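User: Is it possible to get a 3D structure for a protein together with its bound compound? The compound here is arginine. I've pasted both below.
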Amino acid sequence: MAMMWAGRFSKDVDPKVNDFNSSISFDARMYRSDIEGSIAHATMLGEQGIIDKSESEKIVEGLRGILADIDSGKLIFDPNAEDIHMFVESVLTERLGDTGKRLHTARSRNDQVALDIRHHLRGECDEISALVRELIETIINTAQQHYYTVMPGYTHMQRAQPVTFAHHIMAYAQMLSRDLDRLADCRRRMNIMPLGSCALAGTTYPLNRHRTAELLGFDDITYNSLDGVSDRDFCCELASVLSILMMHLSRFSEEIIMWCSWEFKFIELDDAYSTGSSIMPQKKNPDITELIRGKTGRVYGDLMTLLSMMKNLPLAYNKDMQEDKEAIFDAVDTVKMCISTFIPMFATMTVLSDNMRRAAAKGFINATDCADYLVKKGLPFRSAYKITGTLVARCIELDTTLEELPLTEYRKLSDLFDEDVYKAISLDTCVMQRNVDGGPAPDAVARQVEALKAKLR
Ligand code: ARG
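Assistant: Yes, that's possible. Here is the predicted structure of the complex:
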């Protein structure tokens, strides 16, 4: 196929070079953005009198036809085309003749591709944000059923203090709500219109760049043509936002993997969202969560690809930048797939509240509350801490718990202890009393849920 730029060349490029150079296999997915960008550009060219109004209208109509034909499957991408931009333009020219050849006036593929990626990725930001919202809502739904489900909270993977299942999973809802903020922030910086930068040095044509921006729903235009064509910060930014999001999903997955082990048995995954083993008949594996944990590395890799690709590029456009697409599209696809699988898996899992409570009853997670009991009776905290430590050691010696240790043992260490100590250290009291904002008490978690719901609205 003769290239659109063939004029300067005396022979065709080697077919291998053509394959190596071509990006249509991965940039074809931007066809809608490319065509909408061209429609806006042609409209503006017509309005400015840079091309004839009638020709501008024909071009817009031709482009709409191409979009409809791709959508309906009537027009198939040519794998030999250099990229999506060349493909659309050559089909337009086939269909319109010389009129089609006027579309690329005052434009370069350099600003065109910069426009297309921004336009395409802002749509992806919206889709991912919608998925993250749905996940947060799913978590909130489950949390609302578990305000009273006591479970051990951990530090260093050691049972530490009692929390509730609602409180624990709401921590992930908080992380995800920050991911939403980051996505919105990233989208805001992305939503800037680069057309008019042309190859690198702008143009002599009297463009109305703000009009093109307005037609395409961009908030502003880029203000330096060199930067306009060579900026891929928004790809790096999105990949880093997605990396943090995957880090959150991966931590959540890690806990779910532990929770379904026989060692914990805090939850049971639905059969539809787990898999068996080819040899061990008893197995039920949490493959989805393991894959999410694994794919997190892949998204981090995409971020590294983008940062490394950019780190020593001189201004302005360099072909290296064609590599941005596979990396950022892979990150986007991976994140979307992970969240959409995670949501129904999470929504259908069974919470084994009794097992959580049993685990909470062991491990002296009420020891802090026992010390606080003495503090409330006037003892300095450090002294109370020491006495409670001795009590715990005594329990271990007698193979019992603080709840079951006889009062006589308590009173050997301090006569401040009375019968009411048992109420003070009961798991329910320990949780109920932690009613500080941000705490695990049912009321506090309900307030947390309401605040997050209000934010989502
Ligand atoms: N396919 C190219 C890319 O993705 C489009 C821009 C090509 N520009 C150029 N001067 N060769 O970056």
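The chain has three domains: 14-105, 110-358, 361-456. The first strand starts at residue 150 and ends at 155.
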